[in-house]
Design brief:
The protein is of the alpha/beta class and 303 residues long. The protein is 39% helix and 17% strand. Helix 1 (13-24) crosses helix 6, helix 3 runs parallel beside helix 4 and helix 7 packs across helix 11 (294-302).
Length: 303
């Protein structure tokens, strides 16, 4: 009988690609949904409601593995105090609900794999290449990721193997990072943001999906792993490649940092700053990236 994987955030960009990869890998898939959805021949849906602290316990009890992807978008809205609270709670609260069900029923999963983010290293541009051993930054992104991962540690305390996937910018067709910026480039109005020197640690959606699959089945994997290519891709490099793939050279001036700050407030740091991360740990576990060249990854995602 196929092992069952329960997903939170299964209807998002990463969740949809991961669902396809899980099914192709021979797993059965269940998804927690805020709305009533009919089961398909391949996916079983269960209801949950974070606002009312409700989760269908059967979803957890039927699961062999759980992958936690749910969370409000970091750069979807300005960071008001309410928005920052929502960003944090949308990541931590699902883990707490799942933990309560696991503990109450003495349920032991084969593994609990959670998304995290390279934002744990902070929003500032340096030449440093961050590894999983580096301490979390003391800014909003760093603190949020630290609390997110600390919630996962409660699952670990139950004797369940846990893995945290610290994800960079995800490149893929139709959705994700490219969906936000490609339209302006497609019509010839793309340009560089701020100094352009901020690093953009990136990963192709196919690699990210396969890393999650490896985290499920590789019992040696535990703790945090950076899921991003270690290279020198900056906003300027990314922008020039994207413009080139659409057949032109960037002609517009850079968007000044102060304009971004005026428009986005505190959230602007997520766009104007960025540092590199090391992928050495996941590669030492035997993972070989399919996409290591940014132009190839972008080209694949535009075709």
């Amino acid at each position: 009988m196929a092992k069952n994987v329960l997903l939170t955030g299964g209807s998002g960009f990463i969740g949809k690609h991961l669902t396809e990869a899980l099914i192709a890998g021979g797993f059965s898939v269940s998804v927690l949904s805020r709305s009533e959805r009919k089961d398909t021949s391949l996916i079983t849906y269960y209801k949950w409601d974070l606002k009312n602290n409700f989760i269908d316990e059967q979803a957890v009890l039927n699961a062999d593995y759980i992958i936690h992807l749910a969370g409000e978008g970091i750069v979807e809205k300005r960071w008001t105090e309410k928005r920052k609270k929502d960003i944090l709670e949308s990541r931590v609260k699902p883990i707490e609900l799942i933990y309560s069900v696991l503990k109450k029923n003495n349920k032991i999963l084969d593994a609990f794999v959670s998304a995290s983010a390279i934002g744990i290293y902070g929003a500032n541009t340096t030449q440093e290449i961050c590894s999983e051993n580096d301490a979390p930054a003391n800014d909003f992104l760093g603190i949020t990721c630290q609390k997110w991962e600390s919630a996962v540690d409660k699952i670990d305390s139950l004797g369940i193997r846990t893995v945290k996937i610290r994800t960079g910018i995800v490149i893929g067709k139709d959705e994700g990072f490219l969906k936000k910026i490609a339209p302006s480039f497609k019509i010839g109005f793309g340009t560089i943001i701020g100094s352009g020197k901020q690093y953009l640690p990136w990963i192709h959606i196919e690699d990210l999906s396969q890393i999650y699959l490896k985290a499920l089945i590789d019992t040696k994997m535990t703790g945090p792993y950076n899921a991003a290519i270690t290279d020198n891709t900056t906003n300027a490099k990314f922008s020039r490649i994207l413009a080139h793939l659409y057949g032109y050279k960037i002609w517009l001036p850079k968007v000044p940092a102060f304009v971004i700050k005026l428009a986005l407030g505190e959230m602007s740091i997520a766009i104007l700053e960025g540092k590199r991360v090391s992928s050495e740990k996941i590669q030492k576990e035997g993972y070989e990236f399919q996409f290591t060249d940014i132009e190839t990854a972008i080209s694949n995602s535009l075709s």
